[in-house]
């Protein structure tokens, strides 16, 4: 055992204050326990206790003079409480930690939800980008096809326009020749059986035939009737116009009038009236043109069959007539006039 250091007793010398500290720490203890804890003699503890009791810092909790329990007086305990308020530090910290943990869990849960939303939206964006790319490709293809078809339609339209202009020019030339032949025949300058007359008639028939062939090749809109909702049936005299288009109607919507069996003058007058007034009633037009109902019905039926007119029924005014959209009235009138000239030439030839 090492020798004792004389300085140990000096460095570890205890005071009554140390007794107060041990009582504060343990909340009360016996004199023997205090002496053992402080490492001093029991008699020393008794002296300190007597002095502290005299100052009313401590008191004896038991009457056993041999080993009495030492504790703070109520007054001294209140003084200590005022100087150092007692706090339940551990409980407050645990409550705070629990609250922070709960908040942390909520934050983690929110972050997980946001991460899932970001992942879903990223997938949606990728899908939309793919759809957009596909749509752009389709639009590009459609644009190319549209431009190609537009060029074709433009070329066909130019070609059709050129053919029409050529046909009209040739027809106008033949018409002038026919009118000149008629004038000369009336004045007796030439006979109807003359080779010159025959040649003009044959050339005119050839032009009409060629024109009919080109018109049959070109697309045509089939004749139809325009009838308002809840309309009443059309008059019986025009009932044939309500039926489906016949084979003859589909072959040519630009058919010419015959030479002998059609009222050409009346048909021409009706077309001119419609070109001017746009819409006329059946009774009003028949009365104004001074055409009997049977002949007028025949004219209207033929014009509807040729795709030139359409009818509609109104509660006020009855049946009404109007030109179909896209009809070239001037050309139709020229055709009628040409048919009139041919019929007159034919009649003159028969004589």
Considering the chains and any ligands shown, give keywords for the structure.
single chain, mainly alpha, Arc Repressor Mutant, subunit A, three-stranded antiparallel beta sheet, 12 helices, 6 strands, 66% helix, 7% strand, disordered N terminus
What does the model show?
The chain is mainly α. Among the domains are: 6-83, Orthogonal Bundle (Arc Repressor Mutant, subunit A); 224-250 and 262-328, Arc Repressor Mutant, subunit A. It has twelve helices and six strands. It has helices at 6-11, 16-26, 31-38, 42-54, 74-83, 89-186, 195-217, 247-251, 264-277, 282-289, 293-305, 329-350; strands spanning 29-30, 58-60, 69-72, 279-281, 309-314, 318-323. A hairpin with a 3-residue loop joins strand 5 and strand 6. Helix 9 runs antiparallel to helix 12 (329-350). The longest helix has 98 residues, at 89-186. The termini are far apart.
CATH architecture of the domain at 224-250 and 262-328: Orthogonal Bundle
Please report the number of helical segments. Answer: 12
Unreliable segments of 5+ consecutive residues = 1-11, 211-260
Give the C-alpha Rg. 62 Å
In short:
The protein is mainly α. Helices cover 66% and strands 7% of the residues.
Write the layout of secondary structure elements.
Layout: H1 6-11, H2 16-26, E1 29-30, H3 31-38, H4 42-54, E2 58-60, E3 69-72, H5 74-83, H6 89-186, H7 195-217, H8 247-251, H9 264-277, E4 279-281, H10 282-289, H11 293-305, E5 309-314, E6 318-323, H12 329-350
Antiparallel strand pairs: 1-3, 2-3, 4-6, 5-6
Helix pairs in contact: 3-4, 6-7, 6-12, 9-12
């Amino acid at each position: 055992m090492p020798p004792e250091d004389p300085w140990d007793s000096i460095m570890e010398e205890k005071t009554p204050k140390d007794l107060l500290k041990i009582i504060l720490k343990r909340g009360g203890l016996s004199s023997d326990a205090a002496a053992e804890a402080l490492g001093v003699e029991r008699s020393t503890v008794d002296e300190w206790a007597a002095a502290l009791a005299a100052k009313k810092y401590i008191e004896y909790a038991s009457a056993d003079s041999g080993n009495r329990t030492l504790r703070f007086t109520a007054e001294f305990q209140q003084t200590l409480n005022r100087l150092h308020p007692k706090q339940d530090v551990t409980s407050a910290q645990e409550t705070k930690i629990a609250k922070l943990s709960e908040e942390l869990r909520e934050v983690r849960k929110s972050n997980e939800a946001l991460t899932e939303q970001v992942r879903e939206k990223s997938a949606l964006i990728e899908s939309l980008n793919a759809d957009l790319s596909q749509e752009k490709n389709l639009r590009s293809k459609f644009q190319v096809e549209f431009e190609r078809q537009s060029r074709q339609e433009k070329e066909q339209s130019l070609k059709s326009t050129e053919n029409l202009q050529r046909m009209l020019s040739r027809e106008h030339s033949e018409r002038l020749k026919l009118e000149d032949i008629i004038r000369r025949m009336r004045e007796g300058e030439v006979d109807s059986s003359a080779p010159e007359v025959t040649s003009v008639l044959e050339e005119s028939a050839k032009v009409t035939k060629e024109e009919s062939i080109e018109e049959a090749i070109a697309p045509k809109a089939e004749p139809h009737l325009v009838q308002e909702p809840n309309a009443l049936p059309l008059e019986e005299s025009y009932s044939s116009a309500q039926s489906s288009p016949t084979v003859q109607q589909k072959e040519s919507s630009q058919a010419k009038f015959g030479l002998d069996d059609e009222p050409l003058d009346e048909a021409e007058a009706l077309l001119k009236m419609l070109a001017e007034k746009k819409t006329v009633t059946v009774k009003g037009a028949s009365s104004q043109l001074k055409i009997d109902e049977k002949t007028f019905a025949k004219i209207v039926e033929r014009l509807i069959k040729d795709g030139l007119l359409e009818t509609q029924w109104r509660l006020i005014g009855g049946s009404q007539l109007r030109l179909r959209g896209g009809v070239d009235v001037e050309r139709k009138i020229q055709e009628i006039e040409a048919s009139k000239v041919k019929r007159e030439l034919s009649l003159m030839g028969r004589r």
